[in-house]
Design goal:
The chain is an all-alpha fold and about 375 residues long. Helices cover about 80% and strands about 0% of the residues. The two termini are about 45 Å apart. About 20% of the residues are buried. It is a multi-pass membrane protein. Belongs to the autoinducer-2 exporter (AI-2E) (TC 2.A.86) family. InterPro entries: AI-2E-like (IPR002549).
Length: about 375
């Protein structure tokens, strides 16, 4: 066989390789198309898995100490307790919100009349920014905009219905994931050797602790922020303090920007009420931001997630770009889980690319290089 024939044989690609490559490309395209079509369901499943991982240790504890091994009863008790806690929180805020909503309805007509006449704090503010003049000069545009609000209203109703369906679906998925979790985990780990199965179990346990710690810590920080905001607004005499404090507590759940959004809204409400109240609220949020960023978050998150600020910032930016507000909420625990997995891989490999590093063309292990050969 000549050299040309040999080169041609080497350069010829087998038909099986070509078909395999085409099949992989088609399979990738189908997978991407499937993901885009069921993106909403996948997001619901991810959120449900997030809460299932967070509640899994709680259900395990209740199963061991309360229900004496009955998993179904333990899961039911924990989820009922979650519903009771959420209902209690809503009830705590429902009464003051209803009262303040009634006050808003009663005070709205005189506020509008004062604003049109340029009287009161709202009227003074509108006069300073020339808002009344702008409204008078653009009445036709405002009327057209108000006329077109009927169409988006249908979208709002549909969004509300989707939110209800999503909430119920996530709750059911999380319940089933926690209930059937031990069977799925044991069945999956049975596919691996005992030593590797134990390692996977240990890593997943650390990941669950990261998620649980993040949720509990974030909720605690938000509750503290809401209570302190309510106290400051109440002392400053700002109306609708409960409604504003609830908004601040909810937005504080969003990492990085949430507290700032709540602070801006509360400060504007303070300045609308009076200048001294606005200054007091502004000073409070400046001081509280320092307290939260340098004391509360490090103290709470350092024992659970253990992420440095640069990693947190990068994780949130990437997650927001991928999944919006939902990504921002899940960014820190997701980054913590990735950190746990990478740390385990590094510790298992001990920083080496292979379990047994080799030297030389004969692939002699380092720990055996230079040793005298033993007689057989």
């Amino acid at each position: 066989m000549t050299d040309a024939t040999t080169e041609e044989a080497r350069s010829r690609v087998p038909v099986r390789t070509i078909l395999t490559t085409i099949g992989l490309v088609l399979a990738t395209g189908v997978a991407v198309l499937l993901v885009t079509r069921v993106e909403r369901v996948l997001i619901w499943m991810a959120v449900a898995l997030f809460f299932a991982v967070a509640l899994y240790p709680v259900v395990d504890w209740v199963q061991r100490h309360v229900t004496r091994g009955r998993r179904s009863l333990a899961t039911l008790l924990v989820f009922v307790l979650v519903l009771v806690v959420l209902g209690g929180l809503l009830a705590v805020f429902a009464v003051p919100l209803a009262q303040e909503g009634t006050q808003v309805a009663g005070q709205l007509p005189p506020l509008i009349a004062d604003a049109r006449a340029g009287r009161g704090p709202v009227g003074d503010l509108l006069t300073r920014v020339h808002a009344l003049e702008w409204v008078q000069n653009n009445q036709d545009r405002i009327r057209e905009f108000a006329t077109g609000l009927g169409t988006p209203a249908l979208g709002v109703v549909q969004a509300a219905g989707t939110a209800v369906v999503a909430t119920v679906t996530i709750f059911v998925l999380a319940y089933l994931a926690v209930l059937e979790g031990p069977k799925v985990v044991d069945g999956s780990l049975a596919l691996f050797p005992p030593d590797r199965a134990e390692r996977i179990r240990r890593v997943t346990h650390d990941c669950a602790k990261t998620v649980t710690g993040y949720i509990s810590g974030n909720l605690l920080i938000s509750v503290i922020c809401g209570l302190l905001t309510y106290a400051v607004l109440k002392i400053a005499g700002v109306p609708f303090a409960g409604l504003i404090a609830l908004f601040v507590a909810i937005t504080d759940l969003i990492p990085l920007v949430g507290a700032t959004i709540g602070a801006v809204v509360a400060t504007i409400a303070g300045f609308v009420h009076s200048v001294p109240a606005g200054i007091a609220v502004l000073v409070f949020f400046v001081l509280y931001q320092q307290l939260e960023n340098h004391l509360l978050q490090p103290l709470i998150f350092a024992r659970t997630v253990k992420l440095n600020p640069l990693t947190v910032l990068v994780a949130i930016l990437v997650a927001v770009e991928l999944a919006g507000i939902l990504g921002a909420l899940l960014a820190i625990p997701a980054a913590g889980i990735i950190q746990v997995i990478l740390r385990d891989v590094w510790d298992h490999r001990r920083g080496r690319p292979k379990p047994q590093p080799t030297v030389g063309p004969e692939q002699v292990p380092v720990d055996q290089a230079g040793r005298p050969a033993t007689a057989g």
